[in-house]
Amino acid sequence: MEGAYFDFKYDDCGNQIIDLHEGIIFDNVQHFKEILTRYSVQEGIKVKKVKNDKQMVTAVCNNSDQCTWRLHASTYGDGVTFKIKNITGVHTCVRNLKGSGASAKWIASQFKDKYKCNPEKSVEELDSALRSKFGVHAYSSKLYRARKIAMNLAAGDHEMSYCKIPRYIAAVSDDRKYIVNLKELTCQCREWQVSGIPCKHAMGCILYMRLDPVQFVDEHLTTEAYLRTYKGKIQVVPDESIWPENPYIPPLKPPIHKKKNKTFKQGPLQVNRRKEPNEPPKVHKRSIHKTSIQGL
Ligand SMILES: [Zn+2]
Ligand SMILES: [Zn+2]
């Protein structure tokens, strides 16, 4: 089967992706090894070359206890061109973010162009660019070494233009990114904290790390928590027809309540003084006058 010449693929964000499969052809063994190194950084693995010469390379995942991935490539046709003959297994090992596959020399070769544009580029900026482009965290001692090598490489080659500055700026500053903390189960978008289920940003990180997403769901949403919630009894009330009779308590009648203010009628407000209980009734002047007339 004729293979296809190696080329990068691109994700939705325009980042280069290396997809290795059987039949891919490389310029030579050096070209193949460069791509294999970059692939190991991309996948967060450390490749171990069990066979390594100009004609043949056989690589396995260094973490072979966890992982059965294996690649075999050898010269092809003209004795210089290199071709992947066989790949078996997929990575089941946990991703290593410390970038064990990325040596200081390799980091320097990836970022030497940045030092041509900006020789004063700091280690912190290099760290940020490394994480942004390759998803790799490196120890600061390695970053300092890489920076030194990159500056030397840049000093030896002044032909590179400034045209890559916009791409560099785009690589190190992306406002749309959210910070995910897998230890604290949080994402800057806050969806994870609210729902208890990893948001799409968190899922991206979890799958990228080849970890189990179920382990990152809030404990309250687990089956165990559900069972704990409902393990107590909820008493069911049966139908009235099967309620038992109680011979000791006679049937009770509902209490009678008398209505108060039954005779109250709405009328003019009382303005006279309330009389004492034994106070004689008041005699109106008009009545006296009338009596005296009658008595005459
Ligand atoms: Zn692996
Ligand atoms: Zn999020």
From TrEMBL:
Keyword set, alphabetical order:
Metal-binding, Zinc, Zinc-finger
Question: What name does UniProt use for this protein?
Answer: SWIM-type domain-containing protein
Q: Does the keyword Zinc apply?
A: yes
Q: Which residues form the SWIM-type domain?
A: 178-210
Recorded GO MF terms: zinc ion binding
- PROSITE patterns hit by this protein: ZF_SWIM
Keyword Metal-binding in record: yes
Locate the region Disordered.
Answer: 254-296
The UniProt regions of compositional bias labelled Basic and acidic residues, in chain numbering, are 273-282
InterPro entries reported for this sequence:
Transposase_MuDR (IPR004332), Znf_PMZ (IPR006564), Znf_SWIM (IPR007527)
